[in-house]
Write a structure and sequence with these properties.
Layout: H1 9-37, H2 41-51, E1 58-59, H3 60-67, H4 71-83, E2 87-92, E3 95-103, H5 105-125, H6 132-151
Helix pairs in contact: 1-5, 2-5
């Protein structure tokens, strides 16, 4: 087995900075969203996906793929959100084992109320501190990394 390719100091700083930024940004956005709307970031992610679904209801697996979650995690999240009236599950007429998820009226109202404050939080915490060149570079970096992840086996 080949020796590991350890990260150099510059790579280590970038990687650890990315992990710290991601964790702290996620925590801050979650706290603000909870305070502003009573929604968690997980609630928000699901509501955004459903509100942007152009074909109406989404299959559970399609939603899981969209939010990049394991199906079991999504199932628990959907149950919590369904109990709160934010969405509904409907049987799939073509597949007895399949189900559709649809945004309820309360869910649509919740996302419409939550989105303005959430996007303002993203603007103030992230983009207000970056210039145009930094935003372009960041977008280029995320595109490049995602292309490698999406093309990686397994």
């Amino acid at each position: 087995m080949a020796d590991p390719r350890w990260l150099d100091d510059r790579q280590q700083r970038a990687w650890r900075g990315h992990l710290a930024m991601q964790a702290r940004l996620h925590a801050q956005l979650n706290r603000r969203l909870q305070a502003d709307s009573g929604l968690s970031l997980s609630d928000f992610d699901v509501l955004v996906a459903l509100s942007e679904a152009h074909d109406g209801p989404m299959r559970v697996q399609e939603l899981a793929d969209h939010v990049q979650w394991e199906k079991s995690r999504l199932s628990h999240q959907l149950s919590r959100m369904e109990r709160r009236g934010l969405l509904e599950r409907q049987d799939c007429p073509d597949d007895a084992r399949g189900a559709f998820v649809v945004l309820s009226t309360a869910g649509r109202s919740a996302i419409e109320r939550a989105a303005p404050a959430h996007v303002e939080a993203v603007q103030s915490l992230v983009f207000d501190g970056l210039d145009d060149a930094q935003v372009r570079t960041w977008a280029d970096i995320t595109d490049a990394v995602l292309a490698r992840v999406d093309g990686a086996p397994g």
